[in-house]
Structures are given as C-alpha cells and as structure tokens.
Amino acid sequence: MVWRVRGRVQGVGYRAFCQRQALGLGLKGWARNLPDGSVEVVAWGMSPALVALEERLRTGPRHAHVDAIEASMWRHEPADGFAVS
C-alpha cells in the first residue's frame, strides 16, 4: 500500500513513528518527506498488518496533526526492512 499523509507531518518525528509501527507489525517499506510537506509511506506485508498501520498513520506521533490520508495500491515489493529517507 501507498499512503500520502497530509497535515503537520514533517519535523515532528512522523517518519520515525512510521518505521517503528511498520517494523512492529512485520511490514517492510519506507517513509519519506515530499516537497509539498506531506509524507509518503509505502508498506508491504499481510493485509491485517496494513490495516493496522493505516489506523496508526491517521493518529501519528504526539506532535503530528494528520489532516488527510490518500491510499492506493503499490505494485512492487520493496526491499527488506523499513527505510526512512
């Protein structure tokens, strides 16, 4: 899955939060800041874990404020682990 998360999600530890959540759920993928201030999260794994991650992305870490999340399918399996860039 690919999520584009909008709101106050840069400079608040959102990507590190995504990494911790994803690894805890056994997912692999990445999270990266985009130039427009949003964060892109790509995750690959079992469907129940992806659903759980999306729920957590809607809340984010303590200082984040998520305004909107757009979800779409990811067609390629990312490398092992969960990277932050």
UniProtKB/TrEMBL annotation:
Record InterPro entries: Acylphosphatase, Acylphosphatase-like_dom, Acylphosphatase-like_dom_sf, Acylphosphatase_CS
- The domain of life for this entry's organism is Bacteria
Reactions catalysed, semicolon-separated, are: an acyl phosphate + H2O = a carboxylate + phosphate + H(+)
What are its E.C. numbers?
Answer: 3.6.1.7
Which enzyme class? hydrolase
Q: Where is the active site?
A: R15, N33
Give the record's keywords alphabetically: Hydrolase
| Entry keyword annotation includes Hydrolase | yes
Decide whether keyword Hydrolase is in the record: yes
* PROSITE patterns reported for this sequence: ACYLPHOSPHATASE_2, ACYLPHOSPHATASE_3
State the family it belongs to: Belongs to the acylphosphatase family.
**Record protein name field:** acylphosphatase
**Coiled coil feature spans:** none
Molecular function as annotated in GO: acylphosphatase activity
Pfam families found in the cross-reference section: Acylphosphatase
